[in-house]
Amino acid sequence: MKIEKNTVVSVKYKLSDAQGNLIEESSEPMVYLHGGYQNTLPKIEETLDGKDNGFSTIIQVEPEDAFGEYDAALVKIEPLSRLPQPIEVGMQFEGSPDDDDEESVIFTVTEVADDKAVLDGNHPLAGIALRFDLSVIDVRAASDEEIAHGHVHGAHGHHHHHEEDDGEQGDHFRSQPLN
Of the candidates 18, 116, 121, 125, which lies 20 to 30 Å from 92 by C-alpha distance? Predict the structure, then answer.
């Protein structure tokens, strides 16, 4: 089956920067609903469109087509007294950059020193050209429910539990290796 709109694609990947330094290697496949549902980067979808199971390639995605350019305006220095305690590097907070009318951003604490914390609202991969080594390991037709919801259900995807299923409410994610 060819990869096209409304197919579920399973891809093993290695993510590196443009110099070949490994950032992440999938232990489980990335499984997404193909066709503009914003489940993966548009450049990945564009590259895989029309391809078959077994297709492999390496693509480079520039920052503007990935996680954007690094924006120094999204870096803030805040007094520790304005933040919950204890504060640690790596903690994240949601807030607006400077203007209350702006969309909220997730800020990551990148440094703590001298009663102040550095908060960075950039995505960790912002400003980095990314190299994806992609290998398609499965392609299948999406179910009507997956298409209606705009994402994959089941193994490696999104699963909706209903109250009568097992007493749990809300959405849960689960992953299982494909054999």
Answer: 18
